[in-house]
Amino acid sequence: MISYKDYEKQVYDWLMIKHNKDVNFTFSVRQNGSKGAELDYFIGTENSKYFSTTFWTLPVGFPGSSGDCIGLIFEYTKSGYKYFVDFNQTASPEGNQNISVLNLLKSLRSDLSDFPGLQKQTSEKHKMFNLRTKTKKASYETIEEMLVDVEKDIDYIIPLVNEHVTREKRINPEFIAHRITSDEFESMHKKMETRFDKYSHVIKEKVSAQNQSLDLISKNDTTNDELPFPLNQILYGPPGTGKTYNTVLEAAKIVTGNEYINYDEALEVFNNNLGTQIEFITFHQNYSYEDFIQGLRPDTENGSALTFEKKDGVFKRIADRALKNLESSKNPATAKKDFDIVFQELTHPLNEGDVEELEVKMKKSSFFITEVGDKSIEFRKNIGASNHTLSINTLRKMYDKGLNDLILGGLQPYYNPILELLLENGKSNVEVVQKQNYVIVIDEINRANISRVFGELITLIEEDKRSHGKIPMRVTLPSGDSFIVPSNLFIIGTMNTADKSIALLDIALRRRFEFVPMYPDATLEAVHDREILIAINKAILDRKNHDFTIGHAYFMSDNYSRTKTINNKVIPLLLEYFMNDEKEVTAILQAAELNVGGWPLQMIS
């Protein structure tokens, strides 16, 4: 396969040939060149291995929207070249323009099912309405072969969309939708040419990198600047507005680099990567620095005496994994297998009983490993019957560093030969490491003492202080371990504003995170009894602010029951908000034409 850049160039040249034959054939190109995409022709990233164009000016806007709602997508995969036409819009639009866009896409479903066919169409329960066209082949070996089918599809789809746009304009004359005009086309291309002139000096660097190895480029030439996701973000709002629900989607987008992933696919990605590329934790009042970064814990397996051992917290564990991946991907020569895998391979004959002792050769003699425990290796010297032990955790640190700078003298002559064996085996048959993004989701981030939990981390999470930032900052933890936050680790927090306002958050934390508001949205299609929800929240706003409104998620259950929702969710929440003021809560519910009475307060049918 050719490089991603050449793939993009060939598609652009093909589209220009069609334009030169017919000046009315217009298409979109990338307008702005973010870092790493200065010389790209289209929207898309080399990391996510896709690029896209559209043929229409069709404005849409909704929380989380990105890209074009109708796009011709080209994918770049190991199995070959792929394409499809994607139709995407929120299922709960606000405003006449967004409603018309959704109506347009829905009206196309039947015709597109006939030709070219649909490989994907979302159900009514999804938050996004999405159609994706079929292709004759799952993937193509050559671009030329693929473009023959692309041409057939767009020659049918473009007139079809134009026809349905005309129909929707009869319903909504103010609907903005039309083929990209000649003026728009010329303007976009002038901007692209200006950008190319400005950044032409990077061509040689790109070509040089491409000539080294196509695989290394596609896997390693990646920066977080190409991804439209903040390194640190907090989703905030009152309870029941989908904050935790949306962390799954955001985490999957970051891990895959796919901005178009739907929720079902995102949930699968989230679950498959939980514990590896993704960690999920919930803060609470007793959560501490020792739980999050590092601390001492009792050694429960030592029966002879009470001892303590150093334990890494969840953030340090995922940070270490992310940093190891980042460094191995940027410097393939240092890549090696995971310690546990290599150590298991080395000790396998002894563990399986194939041998009674495992000989380890030294320069002039040998020593023999007699037993492998959970934390240590027992060995005997070549002369004498006394047994000695080596720490597995110490070997792990040496292996990760690639050298022994921990044990000087004493048992050094015994650590070094084992380390050499581990490094030799660890660096053999190693595949090129692909750079990956890692995500830690912190639910209810404002429930813990943030200053105490984060400690020095509050400075290290800044973009420029991270491992590959402009001024990387490494600190020494209380244990003596060196620590730095990697540039490929993303932090997503959720914050319940009914518990604590943003204004009350630690100022140092506030200025290091981007805050994404999530408040009740009664216009969502799946919301039941939306009039009741609107009326309740209106009554609340007469008494308190938006942070105490009722979230739409309480009214979205598949097994929704008005009585159960009001009695078991809404009333307890209101009583909490209004300090058990029965009269105030009753007045709020009566404003929604709900009769309540008795104690505990219950809805009266």
Can you offer a commentary on this structure?
- This protein folds into four domains: 4-225, no CATH class; 232-293 and 435-517, 3-Layer(aba) Sandwich (Rossmann fold); 336-426; 530-603.
- Helices cover 39% and strands 18% of the residues.
- It has 605 residues and is of the alpha+beta class.
- The chain has a six-stranded antiparallel beta sheet with strand order 1-2-4-5-7-6.
- This is ATPase dynein-related AAA domain-containing protein.
- It comes from Flavobacterium sandaracinum.
Put the structure in a nutshell:
The protein folds into 4 domains: 4-225, no CATH class; 232-293 and 435-517, P-loop containing nucleotide triphosphate hydrolases (Rossmann fold); 336-426; 530-603.
Layout of helices and strands:
Layout (H helix, E strand, L loop, with lengths): L3 H18 L21 E3 L4 E4 L2 E2 L12 E8 L2 E11 L5 H19 L3 E4 L6 E6 L9 H29 L6 E2 L2 H17 L4 H10 L1 H7 L11 E6 L5 H14 L6 H11 L4 E5 L6 H4 L1 E5 L9 E5 L1 H17 L8 H13 L6 E4 L4 E7 L3 E6 L5 E5 H10 L10 H15 L11 E6 L6 H5 L2 H4 L14 E2 L5 E2 L5 E8 L10 H4 L3 E4 L12 H12 L20 H16 L4 H10 L4 E2 L4 E2 L2
Parallel strand pairs: 9-20, 9-21, 10-17, 17-20
Antiparallel strand pairs: 1-2, 2-4, 3-8, 4-5, 5-7, 6-7, 11-12, 13-14, 14-15, 15-16, 18-19, 22-23
Helix pairs in contact: 2-3, 7-8, 11-13, 17-19
